[in-house]
Amino acid sequence: MRQFFRQLKVRQKVFLLLAIAMMSISFINVGSNIWLAAENPVQEHLAVLTPLLYRSDKQNLSSEDWVDYLNSQQHYFTITDAAVYNMKGNQTSTTAHRFPKNLKEIGVNGLGNNTMLLPGPDFSIMVGITAHIERIFLVELVVLNLVLLGAGFLMIYIILYFINRLILRPVFSLTDTTNEIALEQNYGLRARRFYPDEVGTLADNFNSMLNRIEQDDQILRHEKDKAEQARLRAIELSNKMHDANEKLAFEVKVRSRVEHKLTDFQHYLNNIIDSMPSAIIAIDQDLKVSQWNKGATQITGVNRDDAIYQPLEESCAFLFSYLELITDSLEKQTTNKAERIPFTRDKISKYLDITVYPLLDTTRSGAVIRIDDVTQRAQMEDMMVQSEKMMSLGGLAAGMAHEINNPLGAIVQTVQNVRRRLNPAIQKNREAADDIGTNMDVIQAYMQHRGIFNFLDNISQAGERASTIVKNMLHFSRQSSKTLQAHNLHQIVERSISIAKSEYDLQAGYDFKRIRLNKQFDYSLPDIPCIASELEQVILNLLKNAAQALQEFASTKSYDDQWQPSIQINTQKIDDVAHLTVEDNGPGMDEDTVKHIFEPFFTTKEVGMGTGLGLSVSYAIITNHHKGQMRVDSTLGNGTCFTITLPLIQ
Fold it and tell me: What stretch of H or E contains 162?
């Protein structure tokens, strides 16, 4: 219902509302009249019944007759009952017992709604009536209301006509104008002003709004045209920019490739420079660093980022001493070189070669400084010199051994001849004794009494010992083959011990007799592939170092009678590897000494007592020549143990 009402036009809504209002008023009017008529119909027609009582010819009628008579005289209502009362108010006749016997009995409330007392000149009649409503209002009420309703509808039509003319038509005109503007978007249209009332004012305001909208629309259209032109211009510029971007992207791509190749080439050059074992330092004419490779960082300990673009004396201070050499190369465009420069960093001594090359660049001047670590080369040169000395010493020892062998042979032979001449079992010896007037028993007794036989034994033992020493020296100095051959490790150890004892017998203060030598050999150990002379050199060097350490440590143990210098030599076979350990109970070494013990020219001895090459040469012999391993375990104050491992299968 609500949706139906909303869909109606304005005039239809007004007409419908007014019709409903008129019909509601009519219904209310009819209902109220019916109710009023139902409530009190007698009072409205009292004048019709009362005059009938004054007629003299009807005074003697009974109550039933009065009922018939009164009903015949009117048609507005029906009299159902009647009661006749005399002048005294007493009831003379009645048709119903509900009426009072005397009029005095009527109460304070009076008669009922359907009961009426008609007073006459000589008597009174009380009647009970029933109203005929339909008859009463058939003409008066219904017709009247229909006339009123028709007049109301006519009035509604007139009102609607004026509403339509004065209000709705201007509103509809304004609505049509707005619809046309909305459909066509023609802001040049204007609403018609019918009357100078509120709707006319609304039309004027609407036209003013249209004027502003039209102006704004013109501005917007103008701006739209400008925006369209700007858009077309932007599209044109965008196309040009797109073409320029594509061209630029192509150029960037080409440039990126070129830069990438240049970067790769730069990285390649940097990798080449960094991969060089030498330190490469490039400087400009102001002696500021422009290139710094990893080799320079390794030698100086200065990172590239800390050295680049810094003065040379700050990045590489030790080169400041050779500033004249560098400036000479810059000025004269010549190459200068300084060899075997001592350099120490973190307590490690090295030898460096410095070469300065001038840059052959016409746009700017500068130089390249190449620093080579020649420590190993210098050490190898010193080792070669030492090796030559050892070879010369070996040749000298061999020559001396040959020269000593001759008098030793004469001494041993002479002792043997003396013993043979004193032997009483030989007949010629007895005959010679008889010729001089004595006998061999007396000579034997004399020789025994004077200890001459002991002297001869000592001479024989000393000669044999000297012969053994010479034999070992000849074996040690002999140039053996560099090919690994199977040798008995225990025999090599014994020969090394014999040489060590002989050497320390000849030098004061290094007497091997004072050192307790303990040996624990694994005789199941097979022959090992080795170079016997080199392995003897290694073992002899270990024994020599142990004896020197024990001799120095003995001076601090003079108060300790329980301590005795000793060297423990053990051999053992573990899997396919032979283990040889040489351990002493000397002073031992600290951690820093252990770290550098195998470095060339590193020594803890006093100047003139050692070269620092013994252990480094021994380490090279074991690791390089024999493919074995050599390590040291030592604790300060608890002795030192050297372990050599040699593979049984090469």
Answer: helix 144-163
Q: Going by DSSP bridges, is the β-strand pair 485-487/336-345 parallel, antiparallel, or unpaired? A: unpaired
**CA separation for the pair 203, 192 (Å, rounded):** 7
CA 527 to chain centre: 60
Residue where a domain stops, chosen among 349, 373, 397: 373
As for how many domains the chain has, the answer is 4
- Collapsing DSSP to helix, strand or coil, 361 comes out as coil
Same domain for 650 and 503:
yes
Output the six-digit token pair for 323: 């500033």
Burial, 552: exposed, middle or buried (Cβ in 10 Å; 0-12, 13-18, 19+)?
A: middle
Helix (H) or strand (E) holding 376, with range, is helix 375-421
Are 446 and 513 in a shared domain?
Answer: no
470 and 449 in a common domain: yes
User: What number is the average pLDDT over the span 33-57?
Assistant: 61
Asked if 397 and 293 sit in the same domain, the reply is no
Q: Which residue has the higher pLDDT, 521 or 76?
A: 521
What is the number of residues in the chain? 650
217 within some domain: no
The pLDDT of 505-513, averaged and rounded, is 53
Q: What is the pLDDT of residue 489?
A: 92
Percent of the chain with pLDDT over 90: 8
Q: Among residues 131, 157, 178, which one ends one of the domains?
A: 131
Residue where the block lists tokens 């209000």: 167
Residue 211 has pLDDT above 70, yes or no: yes
- Residue 345 sits at φ, ψ, to 5 deg, of -145, 130
Tokens 């509403």 locate to 163
Beta strands in 87-179 (DSSP E): 91-94, 115-119, 124-131
pLDDT digits (tens, 9 = 90+) for 244-298: 888 888 888 888 888 888 887 777 777 777 777 788 888 888 888 888 888 888 8
CATH of the domain at 495: 3.30.565.10
In a domain, 304, yes or no: yes
- 152: part of which helix (H) or strand (E)? helix 144-163
Same domain? For 460 and 491 the reply is: no
What is the residue range of 607's domain? 486-650
* DSSP 8-class letter at 164: I
Q: What is the reported pTM? A: 0.37
* Mean pLDDT across the chain: 78
pLDDT single digits (tens) 59-94: 677 888 888 888 887 776 788 888 888 888 888 888
- Could you tell me the two tokens for 598? 């195998």
Tokens of 519: 């040996």
- Please give, one letter per residue, the 3-state secondary structure of 234-278: HHHHHHHHHHHHHHHHHHHHHHHHHHHHHHHHHHHHHHHHHHCCC
As beta bridge partners, residue 292 has 281
Residues 630 and 498 both lie in one domain: yes
Does 397 share its domain with 471? Answer: yes
CB 351 within 8 A of CB 329: no
